[in-house]
Amino acid sequence: MTRKPDGRTLILHLLNYDHQSPAENVKVRLDLSGLVQDLSHWEVKVLSPDAAQPQLAGLSLHGSVSEFTVGRIEHGT
After folding, report:
1. How many whole angstroms separate alpha carbon 65 and alpha carbon 23?
2. What is the pLDDT of residues 22-59, one digit of tens each?
3. What is the pLDDT of residue 50?
4. Angle at 59 between CA 57 and CA 1, to 5 degrees
5. C-alpha angle 53/41/54, rounded to 5°?
6. Theoretical Cys-Cys bridge with 73: which of 16, 52, 53, 64, CB 3.0 to 4.6 Å?
7. How far apart are the C-alpha atoms of 48 and 40, rounded to whole Å?
8. Where are the beta strands (DSSP E) in the chain?
């Protein structure tokens, strides 16, 4: 995870090192206590070189915890 100098942007890099098989339905739970107190007003963007529209499901932003599922990771998201 990377934090940009503006303090308002966090970047999470998800990598799949198995280039023979994509990672499917990857569940992510981020507890950002100490970095962010309230994620409810944050915007979530998903970018990937693998797909034009990466699939993100079950996004939940409660307090400092974010949970979501990434549908497929070929190499990186």
Report:
1. 23
2. 999 999 999 999 899 999 999 998 888 886 677 899 99
3. 80
4. 105
5. 10
6. 16
7. 24
8. 2-3, 10-11, 23-31, 56-62, 65-73
Dist CA 9 CA 55 (whole Å)? 21
Q: pTM for the full model?
A: 0.85
User: Which residue blocks in 29-72 are alpha helix, DSSP H?
Assistant: none
Distance CA 76, CA 49 (A): 7
Report the alpha-carbon distance of residue 51 to residue 34 in Å, rounded.
32
State the Cα–Cα distance between residues 67 and 21, nearest whole angstrom: 24
Name the residue type at position 24. Answer: E
Q: What are the pLDDT digits (tens) for 2-30?
A: 999 998 899 999 999 998 999 999 999 99
User: What is the DSSP code (8-state) at residue 15?
Assistant: B
